[in-house]
Amino acid sequence: MVRRKKRDASRRVGGETEQSSPIADLTKLGDLTVGKLIALTAVAFEEAPHDVVDKIARMAAPPNAADSDPTRETILSYIKKPKTTKLKGKAVTRRNRLTPVHYKFAHLVINYLDGRRPDEQSLEVSSKTKGGASWLDARGLCKRVLAEERERRYERPLGSDPGTQADINLITGAYAICRRETKDGIYHQELLILRNNGTRQNPHCHCTYVSENVVTRGEWMIIGHVVYCSMSGHRDDNSNEIGGLYLAHLNDRDMLSGFLAGAGTALKIPVVMPVVAMKVLKVAGGFLELGDLGDEVILRAFRTVKADLSGISAGLEAILEKQVKPVVFNASVCNPELRTAFANGQLLISDRFREFCDHPID
């Protein structure tokens, strides 16, 4: 009875019959379709393909009931036959089960496979039987996709949570930042521009941060109640500058507060500084495009501002220091003390952790 189930599962994806080791026949990722991968997964757990995609779609669903990526509808379509439909008078072909495997779906499948991993004894027995290595084959294919598409997988940050288009539209704008500089200990007024270069439905969020000495640019996104900006730039001496802003947005989105983490001026050591950002409600037309200009033009104009925050610095500090003080992590002081206290640092690694690292993860 079990054998018949396995034979049936191997034929279910549109008549595509999988061989005992299809991984050996796929020399290019372009040859691998989601239909073949789902068929392998179905064989591995003796399930119907429509049950497999339904469980994967459920596993991928975010907690706030927003769309996953890929969406539930897309995942469920991966067992359907290719179909050509007309959309606004144009023929649109949906490849469905013939869709090449994207790294996002490969990641979902390998999580599903590992979440229901057979025990070692079952793996050893099944791999010796004809067609019994489907779990290993499916997992091996997913690992190949993830390895070979590593650049596509990590070249861009994940982006904002699904369903945050309205928040993005409200938060976009120019902000006056209050930040205490570690170099002189004085609060400075700096500029943050959060811009959407795309549309409301398909946002492309870019940010520009302007201080007296450097302009950094990057991308921003909304994760939960956090506005995160990942930025980099060049100083006057062409040395690199990096920074990450983590700002909380509440119902009143004209004020954002949080901290900036980056490389400090002195020796490029890690530094964390609390900041508050207040939205400038009235800006000139095209002001949000300031980041498209050259650094020298921006800095020359910004240095003429010379904002004086001495009158509010004490009150600002009294509020911000209750949450987090500016932290300069001086590794040249910390590391020697840690080495002395913990046997050159080796006592910081537990024996169980060493044992874990000494065994490869299959």
Can you describe this structure in just a few lines?
With 362 residues, this protein is an alpha+beta fold. It is built from 13 helices and eleven strands.
Oligomer: single chain
**How are the strands ordered across the major sheet?**
3-4-5-6-7-8-9-10
Structural class from helices and strands?
alpha+beta
User: CATH H-level name of the largest domain... which superfamily?
Assistant: Quinohemoprotein amine dehydrogenase alpha subunit, domain 2
Q: Beta-sheet strand percentage?
A: 15-25%
How far do the termini sit from each other?
Answer: 31 Å
Radius of gyration: 27 Å
If you average the pLDDT, what whole number results? Answer: 85
* Low-pLDDT segments, ≥5 res: 1-21
- The outline comes out as globular
User: Main sheet?
Assistant: 8 strands, antiparallel, barrel
CATH fold-level label of the largest domain: Lipocalin
Number of helical segments with 4 or more residues: 13
Commentary on this structure:
By secondary structure, this protein is of the alpha+beta class. The protein contains 13 helices and 11 strands. It has an 8-stranded antiparallel beta barrel with strand order 3-4-5-6-7-8-9-10. A two-stranded antiparallel sheet has the order 1-2. It starts with a helix and ends in a 5-residue tail after the last helix. The model is unreliable at 1-21 (pLDDT under 50).
Name the descriptors:
362 residues, alpha+beta, Lipocalin, 3 domains, eight-stranded antiparallel beta barrel, two-stranded antiparallel ribbon, 13 helices
Topology of helices and strands:
Blueprint: H1 2-10, H2 34-45, H3 49-60, H4 72-76, E1 83-87, E2 90-94, H5 103-115, H6 120-127, H7 134-148, H8 150-154, H9 165-171, E3 173-180, E4 187-196, E5 205-210, E6 215-223, E7 226-234, E8 240-249, E9 255-263, E10 270-279, H10 295-302, H11 310-320, E11 327-328, H12 331-341, H13 351-357
Helix pairs in contact: 1-2, 2-3, 2-7, 5-7
